[in-house]
Amino acid sequence: MHDLNNLLLNIYEKFKNINDGHLATYIPELAKANSADFGISIVTLEGKTYGAGNCKKNFTLQSVSKPFTYALALEDHGREFIRSKIGVEPTGDAFNSLIELEEQSHRPYNPMINSGAIAASSFIKGKDAIERLQRILDLFGSFAGHPLQVDHQVFLSEKKTAHRNRAIAHLLKHFGVIDADIEESLDLYFQQCSILSNTEDLAMMAATLAGGGIQPITKKQVISRDYIRDLLSLMFTCGMYDSSGEWAYSVGLPAKSGVSGGLLVVVPGKMGIGVYSPLLDSHGHSIRGVKAIEELTHSLNLNVFSAHA
Ligand code: GLN
Q1: pTM
Q2: CA of 62 to the centre of ligand 1 (A)
Q3: Which atom of ligand 1 lies closest to the CA of 259?
């Protein structure tokens, strides 16, 4: 497997000079990212780590946080309650769309878009806001294998400018999807999005999902095995928003992207992959990240269906 480092280095070299795309300026703090940054990491189920580029560079999780908070909401309330509040259908609309909430079902289509993720955050149990955030940090840290922290600048930057997310939260309250205080739910959502990580953390978190919820280093079962298939199915069908179909076709693996440029990919039963590069396409996915994953997964024949093709 030491060839993996060579493969990652070749992929890094191949795509590092692609400068297409744009930074996520709608959260002002994210516009300060260095667009040259590019890192890619792999962690196997045995906990072996491979990487190339800026693997230790910290960035905020943004929407990569969504499956993990959804997992905690499932642990807190069970599948039946959560299913009654948040659907499991892809939208074909942008991640921050509120159109389907307004016009059709009056509940979020799935937990990978903002409406579903804000609802999931509102369901996290705890005696107060501090305890709810701590429970999220504890769970995310147990996936990564070490404590994680919130970047307060990014949190405040999003909190000040999140008019669309605030509108979504008000609609969720209006339609009776969420019961909790709107500002507290939004704060928790912005904080989970502002948790700092690097590509090794993403790969470790993905490897934990790939291994049925067992963290590769600590060997702890960090989430019920029963919920892993919920998360992976939803990441497969909805994790890349309105390009999920394209992604399923070209890569064929559960994944989640974030607007800071992070991309987490799960290879069930095999490994986790994390990529970071902040220049984004029109869906909000890292351009170098998507290219790197396409190249890597084709080279290693990792599409979940390829074993049967
Ligand atoms: N915090 C971001 C938002 O709500 C996350 C979006 C994303 O990463 N796609 O807009």
Answers
A1: 0.97
A2: 5
A3: 8
